[in-house]
């Protein structure tokens, strides 16, 4: 099951065929959403009390029968909507009331989880709320429901402490601690039947929605309600064989109609245990996900986890930096907006500057909404990209399960900057997206306890000490981990990923499945070491040649029998295998072969005219005799390639053929492999356009008097 958000742009009146534009359709959907919001708010406020929440928590009606799962049916079984009356003079169909009752029932049922946490914290209220003892934590954990994080406990504790500071006593429960929840303007069409809404699929990319909408803000009779036919363009994420369900309509602040369309596809069930190959991922700050592949070997007490040691990294540094910058802009706009609003409230309406401050506050509020929308879009894109990458890695490596850190127990501590960046990440969205995508590939996603994964060594379970990374020795040692026992040295997130996969594979027999959501988790910690098994080395060309030589039959000794070759290759003289033999003056010896390999010592002297206009390049030595002959890879021409410039007698002109390295940067600067020779004074390749039309065109364009010097 997944939900795709589509957009409705226009509609058609079913009876008359009149086209309804986007603006008119947005107004009519807004009328229905506002009416549903008012009805839901009245019903939630009327039933916001400990007695009503006790009845919903018990799940029994007045006759002792179980309440149905549908919210609107449970509300009517309890006779709670009797107090729900629409505004005077407004006609509301029964299906619209049913949608409001469903929305109210869902809101009240969501409050039951918060109520259980508050009740447990109040029952085990410590002597010092700022610091609980081990005994107090044990008593609190025994009263709390399953999968409650430490962050939720601290938030509820702070909320109760603020209440005590203001009232001088403990609150009686959640209803005394909080007011009625706020509801959003939206229409739950899933609670309505065919008398109010129908949905049909036209083709693979289009769905047709028929819904009765009010023609005015306060419809007085049934004639003020009309059927509207809305064609919805389906995104590519909805498969052609997916089953569409009744959507939810809501107007957006940007002036569009959002259609939250649920769709489902049959997926095979994944197994909870019995996995042999798995992927383990660790959460990070810049590196959002760091994973490692593990395999379970052995049986019984000899079981162990082996890995190839290769890290899998999803680096989101660029997106994290953009999100961090946008969060700073959002906070800045919020501060300026509150300041302008405070100035406007302090001056009052008669003051001349009141309207100016109010307009500025509204402008800042619009900018704040745009930045928030940008952050949400980036977070969603980042979450789904990370989830898709993780599932693709699991499919490619043949893993049947993915182990993640338990998000409920992961908390950001330490520096403020790291706290903000870690808390701003969308880890929950990544986990949900990963579960959704992995279900299609028949891969299970299981969470393991996160406490202590970065503390112990995955190889010997010794304490890890933090050192500066090898490539960042000047920074603090937070990212790199080192073990003094087994001398393990690696990235901290990589070591934590090994611990995570060890906890998952060794404790997979303790996997539990949540009945409501189907999420799997492991709450039992089983420690074990992770052995490193090197991957087989890839067969290189040299290794393949050696293997062929071992398997091939021995060749007969003697000269190589090559067609057209009448005699064997003569051996070289002693000492001339790697370079040509030279005489004492530096010239090649007669009969020796010129080597193509660069000589050990190469000295090219820089000779200049008598005027001294040319400086000697740094590093050249004039005391060592010059080495004659071409220098590989440079622009010094060979003796048979010397070309005389007819316009500059006695000087040599370099050509395209003599220089093998030509770059645009060298052409811009003018220093294009400038080398001096002993015989010919040097002429720069690029110079001013002095009438030499045979020079390259780009050389004339690249001339800059400040960057070039004519010799």
3D architecture notes:
The protein has 711 residues and is of the alpha+beta class. It folds into three domains: 1-266, no CATH class; 277-314 and 379-532, Nucleotidyltransferase, domain 5 (2-Layer Sandwich); 626-711, no CATH class. It is built from 15 helices and 22 strands. The protein has helices spanning 22-46, 50-58, 71-77, 94-123, 134-143, 150-167, 174-177, 317-347, 354-397, 416-423, 427-440, 492-506, 541-551, 664-669, 697-701; strands at 2-8, 11-13, 19-20, 187-188, 197-203, 206-214, 225-233, 243-244, 248-251, 257-264, 277-283, 287-297, 304-307, 312-315, 401-405, 444-448, 464-467, 480-483, 489-491, 511-513, 520-522, 530-532. The strands form four sheets. Strands 11, 12, 13, 14, 15, 16, 20, 21 and 22 form a nine-stranded mixed β-sheet that branches. Strands 1, 4, 8, 9 and 10 form a five-stranded antiparallel β-sheet that branches. Strand 12 (287-297) and strand 13 (304-307) form a beta hairpin. Helix 3 (71-77) crosses helix 4 (94-123). The longest helix has 44 residues, at 354-397. It is globular. The relative contact order is 0.07.
């Amino acid at each position: 099951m997944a939900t795709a958000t589509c957009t409705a742009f226009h509609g058609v009146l079913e009876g008359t065929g009149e086209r309804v534009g986007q603006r008119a359709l947005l107004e009519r959907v807004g009328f229905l959403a506002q009416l549903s919001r008012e009805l839901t708010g009245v019903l939630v406020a009327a039933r916001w009390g400990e007695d009503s929440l006790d009845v919903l928590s018990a799940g029994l009606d007045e006759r002792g029968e179980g309440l149905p799962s549908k919210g609107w049916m449970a509300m009517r079984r309890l006779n709670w909507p009797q107090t729900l009356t629409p505004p005077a003079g407004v006609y509301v169909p029964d299906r619209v009331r049913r949608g409001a009752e469903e929305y109210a029932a869902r809101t009240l049922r969501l409050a039951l989880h918060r109520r259980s946490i508050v009740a447990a914290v109040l029952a085990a209220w410590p002597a010092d709320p700022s610091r609980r003892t081990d005994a107090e934590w044990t008593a609190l954990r025994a009263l709390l429901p399953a999968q409650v994080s430490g962050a939720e406990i601290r938030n509820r504790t702070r909320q109760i402490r603020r209440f005590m500071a203001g009232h001088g006593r403990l609150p009686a429960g959640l209803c005394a601690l909080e007011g009625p929840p706020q509801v959003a303007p939206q229409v739950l069409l899933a609670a309505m039947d065919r008398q109010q809404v129908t949905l049909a699929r036209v083709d693979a990319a289009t769905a047709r929605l028929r819904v009765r909408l009010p023609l005015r803000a306060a419809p007085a009779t049934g004639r003020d309600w009309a059927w509207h036919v809305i064609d919805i363009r389906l995104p590519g994420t909805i498969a052609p064989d997916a089953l569409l369900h009744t959507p939810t309509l809501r107007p957006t602040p940007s002036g569009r109609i959002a259609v939250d369309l649920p769709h489902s596809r049959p997926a095979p069930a994944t197994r909870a245990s019995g996995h042999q190959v798995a992927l383990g991922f660790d959460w990070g700050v810049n590196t959002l996900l760091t994973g490692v592949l593990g395999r379970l070997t052995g049986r019984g007490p000899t079981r162990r986890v082996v890995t190839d040691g290769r890290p899998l990294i999803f680096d989101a540094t660029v997106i994290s930096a953009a999100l961090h910058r946008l969060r700073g802009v959002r906070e800045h706009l919020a501060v300026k907006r509150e300041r302008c609003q405070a100035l406007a409230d302090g001056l009052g309406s008669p003051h001349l500057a009141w309207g100016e401050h109010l307009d500025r506050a509204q402008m800042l509020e619009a900018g704040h909404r745009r930045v928030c929308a940008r952050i949400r879009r980036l977070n969603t894109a980042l979450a789904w990209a990370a989830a898709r990458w993780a599932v693709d890695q699991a499919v490619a490596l043949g893993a049947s399960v993915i182990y993640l850190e338990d998000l409920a127990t992961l908390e950001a501590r330490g520096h403020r900057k790291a706290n903000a960046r870690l808390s701003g990440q969308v880890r929950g969205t990544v986990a949900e997206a990963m579960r959704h995508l992995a279900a299609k590939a028949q891969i299970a996603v299981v969470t393991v306890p996160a406490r202590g994964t970065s503390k112990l060594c995955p190889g010997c379970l010794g304490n890890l000490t933090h050192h500066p990374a090898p490539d960042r020795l000047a920074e603090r040692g937070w990212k790199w981990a080192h073990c003094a026992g087994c001398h393990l040295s690696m990235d901290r997130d990589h070591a934590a990923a090994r611990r995570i996969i060890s906890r998952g594979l060794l404790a997979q027999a303790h996997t539990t499945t949540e009945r409501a959501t189907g999420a799997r988790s492991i709450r039992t910690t089983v420690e074990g070491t992770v052995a490193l098994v090197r991957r087989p080395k890839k067969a290189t060309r040299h290794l393949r040649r050696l293997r062929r030589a071992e398997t091939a039959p021995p060749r007969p000794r003697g000269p190589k029998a090559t067609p057209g070759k009448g005699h064997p290759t003569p051996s070289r003289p002693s000492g001339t295998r790697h370079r040509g033999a030279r005489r004492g003056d530096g010239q090649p010896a007669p009969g020796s072969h010129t080597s193509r390999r660069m000589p050990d010592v190469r000295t090219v002297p820089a000779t200049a005219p008598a005027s001294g206009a040319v400086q000697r390049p740094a590093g050249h030595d004039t005391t060592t005799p010059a080495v004659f002959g071409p220098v590989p890879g440079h622009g010094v021409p060979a003796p048979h390639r010397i070309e005389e410039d007819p316009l500059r007698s006695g000087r040599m002109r370099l050509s395209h053929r003599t220089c093998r390295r030509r770059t645009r940067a060298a052409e811009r600067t003018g220093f294009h492999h400038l080398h001096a020779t002993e015989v010919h004074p040097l002429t720069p390749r690029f110079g001013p356009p002095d009438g030499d039309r045979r020079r390259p065109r780009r050389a004339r364009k690249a001339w800059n008097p400040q960057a070039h010097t004519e010799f």
